[in-house]
Amino acid sequence: MRNEVLRMERVTYKEDEVVKLEDFNLQIFQGEIMGFMPVNSHGKTALLKLLERNLPLYDGYIYYGGEKVNTWKENYKAANRISIIQEKSSLAGNLNIADNIFVLRPGFRQWVIRTKILNRQMEPFFEDIGMDIPLNKDVEKLSTFERIIVELLRAVIMGYHLIVLDEVGALVSDDELKKLHGIIRRYVKKGFSFLYICSHLEEISSICDRCALFTNGRIQKILEREELFNDPSVTYMTEYNDMVRYHTEKREGKQAAPVVFQWKGYGEDAACNFSFDVHKGECLAVQIMDARGMEELRKILTGDILPESGELLLNGKQTEIPGNCRIAVIQERTTKTMIFPELDYMNNLCICLTEKVPSIWHNKRLQKSIRNEYSPILGSDVFEMPVEELSEKQKYQLVYTRVLLQKPEILFCIQPFCGADLAHRMFIWSMLEKFLDKGISVVILSLNLSDSLAMADRLLILGENGEKREIARENFHKITSPVPWLHMYLSERK
């Protein structure tokens, strides 16, 4: 008989009288990787809260390690021994790894910290996973992948037998994800269990034993790994699959266009010592294998640094990105980084036009024209709404519409699908299609291929120290990584 780690029975949970989870049932066994695929994000945050600590339930029961820890009658107050690893770090940034793993551990009472002893205690764990990270390394200096590994090891050392991984695949490169999956499998053999939250079928199928399909606060069905691609109940994928297939067919046979943009060794570090061209109206997916390179690219595109070496050419003329309205940038975590909360919707929309139309703030005629043009898309009531009242979709809509108003020649998107659920990824897709339909070039920068592969006309893989590999669309089927939507290209070649 398999040992049960977690069981949630008929759980209904409310926040401010809003139902977040309804009749929620989930069972996870020892030594199991349970996949969890949210179609939308409604209820996911509530689930993580309940896993972490016992909050009052409206109905149902929660068992952990065979013991009842929460019911609709009473909650037992104590936090559960469950580790949740997600984009936001749970490590103390002002401390090193040893301090985070040992000193902050409940029950640690030593007044004198013996570093050598701590190092010896950690050596078997790092040897076991084939990694070597100095224990005296400050957490702030860790890469995202290293930080995830440290959080995982801390959970193992603290004896947290259920570890939740929340969309971590979107935070690391494909190679790092493979390493992480290998480490997870090692600990599964040691009896640890995992809840692996991910929105991509391919990623889920490559690591999980079973998978729960989740939407609107309910688990719709639990499938075995081999059922994932064939079960008719996976209907939520249909619309997105159709969108992907329509796009791939639409872009098939697209004629080569002239070069509109050139990146020539533009950067401060060897991590950005590469060159590439972008053609007019094409979608170029750029996978950055080096986290340092991604960070420097982000800083260059957002204007945080202005390199002195290399050059950028737009239509053959040297240019810079900051202040150039013909080059647009959509940042990662769009709805958190590109919204001005002190401004209403209309002013947020118009802020990109200040370079072209300095009088935009007082030009009522132009604002009326914008309202008339975009009301059928955005709705007529949205323009005076405070930003904090907008839905997540409306926030995405605001940012992408604002950039469309800018009428750029090229758009750089920094990991646009990261953190977005299925519904929002579909919306981002539809907006990027609008840019491409207008002949605007789109460059998608990401650590992993995610949804960007299906959008791409061309793939550029950038490694360390300027290493570069280019793959044409007709050769996507030769890619060996288990990336999302690759099965479509494979099926086309059969």
What characteristics describe this protein?
Rossmann fold; 24% strand; 15 helices; 494 residues; 20 strands; six-stranded mixed beta sheet; 2 domains; alpha/beta
SSE layout and pairings?
Blueprint: E1 4-15, E2 18-29, E3 33-38, H1 44-52, E4 59-64, E5 67-71, E6 82-85, H2 97-103, H3 115-129, H4 144-157, E7 162-166, H5 174-189, E8 193-197, H6 201-207, E9 210-215, E10 218-224, H7 236-251, E11 259-264, E12 275-279, E13 283-288, H8 291-301, E14 311-314, E15 317-319, E16 327-330, H9 334-337, H10 345-350, H11 364-378, H12 392-406, E17 410-414, H13 422-437, E18 441-446, H14 452-455, E19 458-462, E20 468-472, H15 486-492
Parallel strand pairs: 3-8, 3-9, 6-7, 7-8, 13-18, 13-19, 16-17, 17-18
Antiparallel strand pairs: 1-2, 1-4, 4-5, 9-10, 11-12, 11-14, 14-15, 19-20
Helix pairs in contact: 2-4, 12-13
Which parts are unreliable, with pLDDT below 50 for 5 consecutive residues or more?
108-112
Strand pairing plus helix content: what structural class?
alpha/beta
Largest sheet: 6 strands, mixed
CATH architecture of the largest domain: 3-Layer(aba) Sandwich
Oligomeric form: single chain
**What does the radius of gyration come to?**
24 Å
Indicate the percent of residues in helices.
25-40%
Task: Compute the number of strand runs.
Answer: 20
Distance between the termini: 43 Å
Number of separate structural domains: 2
Beta-strand portion reads 15-25%
Number of helices: 15
Looking at the structure, what is the overall shape?
globular
CATH superfamily of the largest domain: P-loop containing nucleotide triphosphate hydrolases
Can you list the strand order of the major beta sheet? 6-7-8-3-9-10
* CATH class annotation of the largest domain: Alpha Beta
Q: Predict the CATH topology of the largest domain.
A: Rossmann fold
Mean pLDDT: 82
